[in-house]
Amino acid sequence: MPVDLLQRNVPLHGLNSFGLPAHAGWFASIDTLAQLTALMNLPEWASLPRFILGGGSNLVLTGDFAGLMLHVRIAGREQIAEEMDAWIVRAGAGENWHDFVCWTLAHGWPGLENLALIPGTVGAAPVQNIGAYGLEIAERFEYLEAVDLETGKIVRFDHAASQFGYRDSVFKREAAGRYLITAVAFRLPKRWRPVTCYADLAQELETRQIASPTARQIADAVMAIRLRKLPDPARIGNVGSFFKNPLVDAATFAHLADRYPGLPRYLQPNGTIKLAAGWLIERCGWKGRNLGPAGVYEHQALVLVNRGGANGVDVLRLARAIQASVQTEFGIELELEPVVL
Ligand code: NAP
Fold first, then answer.
1. Residue ranges of the alpha helices (H) in 107-189?
2. Is 212 an annotated catalytic residue?
3. Is CB count within 10 Å lower at the N or C end of the chain?
4. What is the rounded distance in angstroms from the CA atom of residue 59 to the CA atom of residue 55?
């Protein structure tokens, strides 16, 4: 095993989409399972705290990380089965998510089109159960493979074991840090139906005069909306949505709706009501505002941005100020969506 697999003091600036400055004391790129096994046999393995890094697109680095950062880059995409009602496809955890979505569509396998252009990797997608425009990956998930970093065993998680929730899974909770996801398999339906319930998407398709969209046309529409509304991380550092949409009970909603007649509401299957965090933040006057070098994106108040030279502490200071405003105005606690390290 090449000893230089383990690097020291690696800058992370280019490995997180916020462009935040930080270093990893120890760093290893994982391109193969064999490399991971070799790493686990090194004497340093047991003593160092570890952090698993994918595309760095849902991460706020608040300073240097003294432990070992594992950068997952495992590649590969394949169709592994064709069933009566579905195509089953599998991709390495290091594959770029959007490229993978485009690859499925190019093969004529629909099902992931609403999730086009979400930054990040295939392996990170199930961790927070990425979702957009009325679809979550939980709805297309078949299983994932992971290495148990405590025992070295390869384990498989099916849908139930992954415990998906709203932008949530077991890998964000009890299993956080224990399993390194190496591959994810998806079930793409042959009897596909377009999901066009979100107003922005329906409007975009109407503008394009598309009444019965194909999956590719939905992906194109989603991409156009995202490019208009969300900042390109290559130009303006960001991690997409910075806060989760809060869920409230009917009584809380009724109380708020009395005071704020335009308050958007999205009824959930379990009877709770989802509020739009971006609406609450905008209402508190934060849209387009800056606090030091961190700011709130002018086209979407749910997105915090690096105006240039921000560090993780600047970003968190802004996030805390927004949380305080929303708490004071609405009595609602906003929860952060990205991982803070
Ligand atoms: P939007 O259309 O301005 O809507 C604001 C919020 O209201 C969204 O967050 C969305 O919740 C909710 N919403 C809108 N229409 C809904 C409907 N018909 N049923 C249920 N909930 C509805 O949102 P946006 O900020 O431009 O984002 C568009 C989509 O991209 C959203 O689905 C958003 O979650 C997604 N997105 C995801 C990520 C990520 O996974 N990290 C990052 C950026 C954007 P939901 O967020 O629950 O969908």
1. 159-162
2. no
3. N
4. 9
- In which element (H, E) is residue 45 found? helix 44-47
Q: How far apart are CA 29 and CA 53, in angstroms?
A: 9
Are the C-beta atoms of residues 272 and 249 closer than 8 Å to each other? yes
- Cβ neighbours of 211 (radius 10 Å): 7
Residue 127 contacts residue 120 (beta carbons within 8 Å): no
Catalytic residue of the set 73, 90, 167, 187: 167
Residue 337 catalytic? yes
pLDDT at 4: 74
The predicted model gives 199-217 an average pLDDT of: 98
- Report the alpha-carbon distance of residue 213 to residue 218 in Å, rounded: 6
The answer to whether residue 174 is catalytic is no
Active-site pick, 17, 162, 169, 241: 241
Whether the CB-CB separation of 66 and 49 falls below 8 Å is answered with yes
DSSP per-residue letters across 73-95: ----EEEEEE-SSEEEEEEETTS
| pLDDT given for residue 322 in this prediction | 98
Percent of the chain with pLDDT over 90: 96
pLDDT band at 17 (very low <50, low <70, confident <90, very high): very high
What φ, ψ does residue 172 adopt, rounded to 5°? Answer: -95, -15
Contact 57 CB / ligand 1 (< 6 Å): no
- What integer pLDDT is reported at residue 1 of this predicted model? 44
Residue among 18, 204, 241, 339 to mutate when testing ligand 1 (max atoms within 8 A of CB): 241
